[in-house]
Amino acid sequence: MHRARTPSILICTVAVWLSGLGFSGAANPDAQAFDQIEKGHYLATVADCYACHTVPNVGKPFAGGRAIETPFGVITSSNITPDADTGIGAWTDEQFENAVRKGLHPDGSRLYPAMPFPAYTKMSRDDVLAIRAYLATVEPVHQPVNSNTLPFPFNIRAAMRAWDALYFTEGEFQPDSHQSPTWNRGAYLVQGPGHCTSCHTPKSLLGGDKTSDNLRGFNLQGWFAPDITGDTNQGLGRWSEADITGYLKTGHNRLTAAIGPMTEEILNSTSQYSDSDLNAIAIYLKSLPGRQDATTAQAASPVMTAGQAIYRDQCSACHGIDGRGVAMLFPSLAQSSLVHASDPTTAIRLVLRGGRSVATTAEPTAPGMPSFGWQLNDDQVAAVLTYVRNAWQTAAAPVSAETVGKARDQLRTRSD
Questions:
Q1: What is the C-alpha separation between 235 and 267, in angstroms, rounded?
Q2: What residues does heme c 3 bind to (predicted)?
């Protein structure tokens, strides 16, 4: 996990870079310069720049080289340290802003939306330049990176001009005058630097956001990023504002625990948000309407009977006969939006492979779930998941053995 530098350490390290940033009086840097850097540090954390631009556990911070899986192939993240040759040290402020807010590389080529410029465009120029000011204080690393590692024809960057025309709308966030300042702050964070749409909004065949289904969940990187609207069954409708803030701050709440890619997001980013920003996000997300046309198929009685028997034998010790689990430790399956998601990918994955939640300073216990893939066949996994999705006055589409089999085959090819 990337640790934030304290202001006292920044005083020692920043002065070297101030002249390169165009600040006057580098020998006696003023408070305004440090305020901008601290602001940029916080915004870089909110935008989670560290996660994509740092190879986990072994890479130097922000030096790039991390492989990022997309539906079209693997992209390698770029070096954004202040190294003049292989990083962004030689970029002008205008070039940096164009990259972050417009998806335009200094050489004139278009960036791929794995760099979430469609969201970052909602940030102001001042916010973007504050991030640049902070990045100028990190250790410069000389590390050439070939970012364009997509297979043909997706490696032809010129095609991005057509993509931009279809899916990219440039422009800063515009507050809604009918909403409160807190709501607008939450909307800005979710839509802009937090770039929640990148994972939680369904995509078209070309990888563009389906705005009509904004934040209603999307399958990527072998997981399903769930619906985070106010939908009662599949989204956050059963969560209180405190549930949302607690989850983002600690990775746990009374209903569930973070798993999969969200654990990294919490460690590197949301656990370091201010309480006021977490509250703003919760207020905004709770205001988003859920689906109005949700329908589910009736689960067959024999499948439910078989699933109940497996659940009682294998699952009830942790999650309880009533499916309510243990608050802050074992998720409540009866109230889990992830369990009842329209796409059961994550639930299937957890049964087959198991998983471990996140450990944060506030909640240092990282409970894990064992793998049952070695013990249960596809029909049995389908039955137990169909049961937990439809027991306890809940309803979700049954899971088929065929779906489980496909997921099992896909997991065999994944190392994560």
A1: 22
A2: 315, 318-319
Tens digits of residue pLDDT in 82-127: 999 999 999 999 999 999 999 999 999 899 898 999 999 999 999 9
135 & 207 share domain: no
Q: Cβ(330)–Cβ(319) under 8 Å?
A: yes
Same domain assignment for residues 391 and 349: yes
Which amino acid does the sequence have at 142? H
- Contact (CB, 8 A) for 91 and 106: yes
Q: Give tens-digit pLDDT for 123-159.
A: 999 999 999 999 999 999 999 988 777 776 777 777 8
What the block records as the tokens of 53 is 């631009």
Residues 194, 253, single domain; the answer is yes
Q: Where are the beta strands (DSSP E) in 189-314?
A: 218-220, 223-225
Q: Is 398 within the bounds of a domain?
A: yes
Phi, psi at 366, each rounded to 5°: -115, 85
Distance CA 179, CA 96 (A): 32
Q: Between 185 and 31, name the one with better pLDDT.
A: 185
Residue 290 CB neighbour total at 10 angstroms: 16
Q: What is the pTM of this model?
A: 0.88
Write the DSSP string, 277-310: HHHHHHHHHHHS---SS---PPPPHHHHHHHHHH
pLDDT at 206: 86
Q: Using 50, 70 and 90 to split pLDDT, how confident is the model at 31? A: low
pLDDT of residue 287: 96
What Cα–Cα distance (Å) separates residue 333 from each residue in 71, 95, 262, 283, 319? 30, 48, 18, 24, 7
Cα angle value 234/276/212 (rounded, 5°)? 35
Distance CA 268, CA 264 (A): 6
Domain count, the chain: 3
214 and 275 part of one domain: yes
